[in-house]
Protein 1
Amino acid sequence: MCGIVGYVGHRQVSSFLLEGLRRLEYRGYDSAGIAVSRDGDIQIRKKSGRVSEVARLVEQKPIHGTTGIGHTRWATHGVTSDTNSHPHIGGNGQVVLVHNGVIENYTTLKTHLQELGYVFQTTTDTEVIAHLIEFCFNEQIKLGDDPTAPSTCVKAVEVALTQLKGTYGLAILFQDVPDLLITARLGSPLVIGIGDKEHFLASDATPLIGYTDEVVYLADREIAVLTADSLEIIHRDDGRQTPAIHIIDKSPGDIDLGGFEHYMLKEIFEQPQTIENAMRGRLDDDEATAKFGGLNLDAQTLRRIDRIVLTGCGTSWHAGLVGEYVLEEFARIPTEVEYASELRYRNPPMANTTMIFAITQSGETADTLAAIRECKRKGHPTLAICNVVGSTIAREADGGIYLHAGPEIGVASTKAFTSQVMVLIQLALFMARMRHMSFPAGQRIINQLKAMPSMVGKALKCHEQVRDISQKYAEFNNFLYLGRLYNFPTALEGALKLKEISYVHAEGYPAAEMKHGPIALVDERTPSIFVIPQGHIYPKVISNLEEIKARGGPVIAIACEGDDRIADLADDVIFVPSVEEYLQPLVTVIPLQLLSYHIALCRGCNVDRPRNLAKSVTVE
Ligand code: F6R
């Protein structure tokens, strides 16, 4: 969580910092701030609330300079307040920094620094880093180092970092050494952009779009020393590194609203395209299979795989559950989906024929990263299904599959879910065709997959109807989301969407399991959303629906076009195109995404920036 930006070069830096923070607001939006260095003076503007609040401050009281840092916060330690907002100042103002991460030993360090006379202004863990670096800087000077030399600052940072336990992405300015920006990483992502006589810094590449397409990803335990003309990277154990330059292929159009009112709506409507992108170049008609460039495992190893563990969090976990069903159905490989936060500490037995897949939109989720690191440590091939190119998980996994869904900026994940499902289905086809699946069966699946962008386009036609239905139900405070087999993960996902952006209590449940407890919740003020497209247990789900109706619960059904029976049973029906059962999550999730969007709007909620959430959860 938290977004960091930085710059050193020739531009007036405030506008880049503020624009960059706006682009990173999805990472946290409790408070924001910037610091700009000029002629031995560092000016700070910071405030609780959104980046726009800080922009207003800067407008009232501009700050000039060509070196600066900025931060948008998702609070971990210390309440949201102007004082606790970053940047933080060390000692008597020599060091100013911003931080993404958590310092686990901050209380011990704080006590020690207080004993040395440092006075703390905030209740954050970050402030200890600022004081600690300043303390180390002063110690260097006592040893005779030049206080205006960049090397003194670097040494101070290096020594201070050895004392920190936890995670950090840091951007640091020194008052007496203007035009120098030091950055360091352990566990929190940082990307350096290379321009013409300028360097940019950000938590991910989004703020750099339109400024440069050449980037260097900082690795854990690396410190980068940036000036307008130079970039030096030093690894704590391995010394100086040659920067590996990557090219990002995003344009400003990828990150604007494109005429939509919110990113979430834009991203919902992008799904026909993003599903297409998830298939592009991957379907092999001649071999009736899917192919992936980046798995980095040979056919022999892949054939030996006899168990698959999928791991992720939140929406990515829900996509994993669809993956579990489809991998077992197509490839007949025993598959489990594990919450990454559990897997990282659970130590379940795994043979070296178990393949682990991390599923993650951002590629930065702390629990998912820790889970695959733990599996890697034990010698298992770890792969990633990931959206953000160059993210930590994408780089640390042994291989993987990108979603190619483009930046997902709305905090509630939408297009990533359908892309993840599409990738997992293709993975199941690929693994199945290496085993028992016949050529015609493979061909049939390929043809069904190719029709999906248009099917999802048709599903989106329910938009107006969903908007009307939302008005009817917006005042309700409890919802049940029910589905069976492939529609159970969709029910979970629908409930999660409603909770996170509407702040309405919703429970996703297997439709038949509902009678073992949650049915007690049913009354005329608790609507049940049934995900009930046609399938081999359709009549069973109808019975579950009748059980709700018999207890007076309102029912909204997400059903297949051509279902004549459902209108008599449900209070409201939203129809989606009829597709094979394993493909149903791709169409049935669309009205659920739209429903949560419109209910959130009716309730006056901030759809793209829901309270308490952040897009990348980089803390445990
Ligand atoms: C829900 C949502 C979260 C994420 C979860 C994992 O809309 O966005 O539940 O799915 O935090 O994030 P990634 O996929 O980036 O690992």
Protein 2
Amino acid sequence: MVPKQAARRRFLRQGMAAAMAAAMPPGLLAANGSLQPRANPNFNADVELAFVARNGLARILPQGPLTAVQTFRAQLLKGPNSVLTELPDNYLGPILHLQRGQKVRIHFRNELSEPSIMHWHGLHVPQISDGHPMYTVAGGETFVYEFEVLNRAGTSFYHSHAHNLTAEQVYRGLAGLIKVSDAEEARLDLPAGEYDIPVVIQDRRFDRQNQLRYVQGMHERMLGLMGDAVLVNGRPDAIFTVKTRAYRARVVNGSNARIYKLAWNDGSRLWAIGSDAGLLPAPVSKPYIMLAPGERVELWLDFSGRALGEELTLLSLPFSGAAPAMGGGMMGGPAQGAPLRIACFKMGERVGDSPRMPERLADFRRLTERDADNASAPLPIGLSMAPMSARINGRTFAMDKVDEFERVALGSVKKIRIFHDHARRGGMGGMGSMGMSRMLETAHPIHLHGHQFQVLSRTADHADAGAYASVKDGFIDSGWKDTVLVMPGESVDVIKPFPDYKGLFLYHCHNLEHEDLGMMRQYLVE
Ligand code: C2O
Ligand code: CU
Ligand code: CU
């Protein structure tokens, strides 16, 4: 980096620090510690990586011109070769495979012509390494992340979290899968190697020249991007040629706004063994699984006994109620809840032997209300939409703002209630009304940074019980989570520990268009 940029960056950071000092309680800056993103010589990294974000061209559609994308590329500087696996010919970044307990240093360099920053969605890391948008760096600049992998074994993903640009940058390709392994998982002897498959689901839309088209206009932005092409691992019309045995599939919803209702075309049930960033206590069988943007589900796919050449299709079944009643004319791809094909699994080889699904998976304690210190006064996350704005507790995101109740004591365990807040008038000025707010009610996948949470309960009070019935059997709430889908009419109570890191931790809607519209706030852990 040239010294001038370094000086400018320091100036910007000090400016940011000064702005926060003015608006925030004292103590925040102490929590931030040094804002300098430099390698710490006392941090002995087991794994060291260089990541860049850059513009590129990728083969996404089978024919015609290549597609202009933004993409993460990485290089291993230190650590085992297994840390990085490239998806073949792909606009997604490489798969990052970490072990619990590893110390990781990542040098990120932004080679785009616009600001960017990386976030490790699902990993529980210190604030300065969490990719908070305050750390967004300009093109040509670098940022150094250092963290220890505290997570249990599970599936997460990294993506851009650039201030006001998250949705469009993720859409253009700035995302990749993270696997974490640990000793508890190793004892389970789950399908590994070629039998451990990534399934990153994204919807995109292309113009006639094969170029990505992003949302246009406020109406589309409020619905969130609805693509007409379903990509799996960066390509349309995914076909997996498999053996007649068990697989572990790591399914990530990496779409901006689309929710999937995953199911097999032949009606057989799905078996889940993991949710966001972790294995479940025990496998769960479901007729279908709801997977909202930011959520992950690990599936146990058992093709044992199937005939050679047989095909099974993973679908997204139709569901209703997730988009606002005012949604109106479809401008993008199929509407939220429309049926889609996700991927085809074709039996390519008969094998006699298959591992059995373990009966028990991860061993952890289920938290109850009694573990929270605020059971009778949960922290509110009240969601409201109004034309031009998406809000939490009536407010939009501000880098330097924390409400009094968003200040959380380090070491505390909080109950948090996520609900639709009809009393808010949003950004509608005098036109605001409860009726309008209800008409705009939509599904929101709510993501909390920092330590994972557990779902305590869901309450649905909706007039439109039929719509809710089309999704309600598809939630997997028995594990640790970092993102939870809150359907219209629904209120969800979660419990979240704030055990070890001070500082600012975001919470936001993972409909990325909603996030960029301001449906994001932060906790100050102090
Ligand atoms: Cu996956 Cu704050 O985001
Ligand atoms: Cu995140
Ligand atoms: Cu939302």
Protein 3
Amino acid sequence: MKRLLPLFLCIASAGFGQKFENVAPTPPMGWNSWNTFQAGINEALIEQTAEAMIANGMRDAGYVYVNLDDTWSAKERDANGDLAGDPVKFPHGMKALGDFLHARGFKFGIYNCAGSLTCAGFPGERGHEFQDARRYASWGVDYLKEDWCYTGTANAPETYRIMRDALREAGRPMVLSLCEWGQSRPWLWGGPVAELWRTTEDIYPSYNRVKQILDLQVGLAGYAGPGHWNDPDMLEVGNGSLTFAESRAHFSLWCMLAAPLIAGNDVRHMTPEVRDILTNREVIALDQDPLGREGFRFRVDSKNHVEIWAKELSGGEWGICLLNNGSTPAAYTVDWQDITFLSGQYYHLRDLWAKAPVGRTPALYTTTIAPHDVALLRLKPGY
Ligand code: GLA
């Protein structure tokens, strides 16, 4: 026992078994390279993206993480077994990229995998966790997305706890973003391990996929809160076949879910309409509300194809989102007496896309919602 005591003290003082506190009190916001660029990333693209996010108002609206996804690294570790950036894609190295981002008010995110290889076949972290965490810290990394390819029979909670401990020992606070696609129900064990965890397999830019992922969030709201978030995957706003209405519905619903808001489009070349979706501060405020409650699906009205989602906010306020999942316009009336959790209180209503007041309860609220679009309201107590 005497001989074990110093070992115990040493482990305890290194902070094993604890993630960093307060690195994500609200859902992280930023940009990630994967959804648009996959393997086509390089230093110039990332720097241009950061400059664009300053010019288009994204950084100041809260999108501070600039995250490299898979394919940033060299194909092999160096002679010391250390990771290095791809020398052709990132000629000035990863520390220089981190410095560039920090000098402009951003935080630096990177990607790797808990397995022996990343999903795209680059060196993974398995067996190198502590060495790699020290490397990331030396580059000034602030956010690590940790994927789950090539993990064989590894146990997800145990494996991810190793990376949590490695980051802790490296000493630089980082957001840890787990990406095991919801397979081992990370909402049950992820809270003490990481700041966020994917709940599903990958998103892609079609309304049907966005809706499938939305449906898979039902029942998970209670597992999220400040510092530990369900991640329904990165945003596809402005991408693929999503119409303007579908992009804004996707964005509204991710905000209702208190989802991490990680844009996945080419922000250097987006339309003003897409920019206005991503930078609507009143909608972002639903996501970033300090109470940290995830929204829930209150009702599905299958006759009209309208779903009602609700999110409790601080100060007794509520976000209410009506989604028209049908393919024709839906004329819809909300009788506030039916929204049982609001009873006993009067509210002023504000339409967050029109940025205008739209009445007060208990008067009925009537609107027409375009196909795959939303009506998004904020309710503030008052007569
Ligand atoms: C997995 C993840 C994606 C992306 C790719 C990269 O599929 O779920 O989000 O990171 O790997 O290879």
Protein 4
Amino acid sequence: MKTQLLIPAAGMGLRLGCEGPKALIDLAGKSMLVRTLERLAPLGLLCDAVIMTPPHWNGVFADTLSLAFPDVPMSIAQGGAQRQDSVRLGLALLDPETEIVVIHDAARPFVALDSVQASIEAAEACGAATVAIPSVDTVLHADANDYLIDTPDRRFLWLCQTPQTFRVAVIRAAHAHAARDGYTGTDDATLVRRTGAPVRLVTGSPTNIKITTPADLAWAAYLIRQGHDG
Ligand code: C5P
């Protein structure tokens, strides 16, 4: 099935304390976005990838990508205010013949290729899949005043990662459903589940971190030194 990569990379690095787009932050000599794409390159997913960028940064992203991947055609387009908006706008740019879309955060440069592949196979089989890892911690559900409400059974709790991989028709329907409801989520698999459709969980790896805070940058530098890059 024709498979396309969609990379939400339109976030600004506010929680990292940087002025510009988070995807362009330097990780040991390369931007986070370039590291993430290099990571995915062996799967043959870079050609025709759709990259969502913050407003006014299109040119800088285009220069960065044409330098790093001179012969690889990609689409670079402006994202939206929330991640969900960026993904919805990106879905509209997929090739008409694309059947599977792999949505992967620019902020996760250490994803394991076998989990990406497993997510594609699961999406082909059941329509929707997300990479995730079983929670090793007990997770507390609290109220707005920091009082414990309840403690869900840890055996059934997973921590969400990306990629999240879908049949295109399934994820487009889920975004349309969320837009009708005025629902905003922090991932795409949840939008599919809200429609009642199944979502398969595929086991990821603890090193597939989302770089969010300055502490994550130190962790990323360590992983690169250990040879976890590309
Ligand atoms: O902010 P957070 O790290 O959770 O964002 C996850 C991913 O979504 C990042 O790769 C970020 O660039 C992207 N994003 C986006 N559009 C937004 C906000 C975040 O594409 N408006």
